[in-house]
Structures are given as C-alpha cells and as structure tokens.
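note to self — DONT lose this again. spent like an hour looking for the file last time. sequence + predicted structure for the chain T wanted, 317 res
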Amino acid sequence: MRLDVLRAIAGGAGPVAACALVLVASVAAPRRVRADGEPEAVSAHERCATRLSVALLGKSATPALLASTEPQTGVDAMLTDPAFIERFASFTNAQFNPEPGETALTDSAYTLAKFVLAGQKPWKEMFVGAYAVTDAVAPDPNGLGYFSSRAWMMRYAGNETEGYRISSAYRILQNTTGLQLTATTSVEGVDRSATGRQAAACAGCHYQGWFALDRVAKILTRRQGDGATMKFIAPSEGPQQILDGTSIANERELVTAIVGSEDFRFNACRLAFKFLYGREETTCEAPIFDTCIDAFKATGTMQAAVSAVAKDPTYCQ
C-alpha cells in the first residue's frame, strides 16, 4: 500500500489545512483571585499542566503538576494512569465503531485496548495478538486480536446473500489504516450480488484498489446462518491480489501485512493526534508527526505515539 493512496482515499490528499488558518482548541486557563479581588496572572507552565491533565486524564491538574516548571516531563507518568487507559480505550472504541455496542461483549475493541495499554504492549496486538476477547482477555494461540472475537464477528457479519463478510472486511481496513469509504445504496438497477458488484457503479470499491472489499472478504471466513446459530466457515476461493498486488490467502496474512506497513504506523499517529487535538494533523505539523512515527516505530506502543505529540513544545503553546 502506498501512503499517498491511503491519504487520498482516507479523507483527501493528506492534511490540507493551511497553518495560518489553524485554530487549536485549548483548555481555558485557570484564573486565581488575589486577596484584593483582582485576578492573578496564571503562568504558561500552569496552563500547560492543565491542558495536559485534562487531555490525558480528563481531570484537573494536581498541585504538584501545577507547580512544575516543566509539566511535560510528567507526560509518561500520566500515560500509565488508569484514567488515561480508560479514556484512550473509550476513544479508540468510538473511532473503530460507528456506534457503541449493545453489550460489553460487542465492544471488544475497548476491552482489548484497556488490556494492551495497561500492559504497555505493542499496539499491533490489538489486531494480531493471540487473545480470546470476551468481556475479559485471555490467551488464545488461535486468536487474532479482537477481530476473532465471536461477538465482533457477529456484529459485522453483514447481510451479503452469499455470506461474504464485506462489513468485516471494511471494519478491518478502517480500524488498521483509517480507510474511509461511503456506501452508495441509491444506484438503481444494480444487482447487489457478488457478480453485480463488479458493475462500474460498484467495482471501484468492491474489486479495484488496494482495499477491494470483495477480494478482502473472499479471504475471510464466510457467514452461514443468522442469530445464535450463525457460524463461520473457512474461505475456499484461494489467495486474492489485494494491498496493491500482494497475494493474501487468509485473514491472518492480511492483518499481519497491514500492521507491518507504514500505513499502520501513520494511522496510529493520526489516532494519537485526534485524541490530543480533537482533529487530524495539519501540513505544518509534519515535523511533529514524523517524530511520532519514529517513536512509534521504536517501541510499537500507543503510549510512545501519544507521548511524542504531547511532549512537543508546540502542544503547550
């Protein structure tokens, strides 16, 4: 996969906002009042401490952090705080799913994110980790992150008539690379079967490009039945040419290839940016973004990505 292709698909050709027009939302500076009733100026260090604490932990800064002349040195400690782990796991779940799950079981991304963050494990274990994910996490040599969670598989099994898990294919790509596609359902006279999706109105998403959804779905297990009797059978159509021409035979090969790509690292840092800034990165923030990617490459942890952005001097300006 080429990064320029991913950026073009996932919301335009990369960051496009002009630096001069970027308005960064900041935490309102705390105000003190002197004995005579006049407001007392708050230092830049205190404003920085407040911003960091609210963004990372969702609560006011401690007196010790407010008193620090270098509050960004406390970032790494905050990233081990249970409040950060809860906050980022919830944020991740919201980014990976279009709406909350009906039960805790169906929000398996949240459950595994808490486990991965608490153990400071590589972020890729969210997607390829050998775990069984229910309302808890347990070792499973056949596990594939939360993608192999039965509740997740049922949630995104879709309703394709031949059992192809097109919805699952899209969610896997979206969660790992940030891919954004808009479904078109208003094209009249188009056969929505596997053959019909090869028509010009549908082929662009289903059979063409590195993300070709039907080709990806053909290497996933197939859905049979509905409701509690639903089961998943092994794919039988052989390897597919996806990810810009790579021959991929099954779901494990697919996700393993993605988490080893630059696109995966790019999306991890974009997730960190969105968590801290409430928006994607801009063109003028490319140096910070590059620092984030380098830090993420070094350890593979999401804490490293968040730390690189939060510790940059510009975050507290």
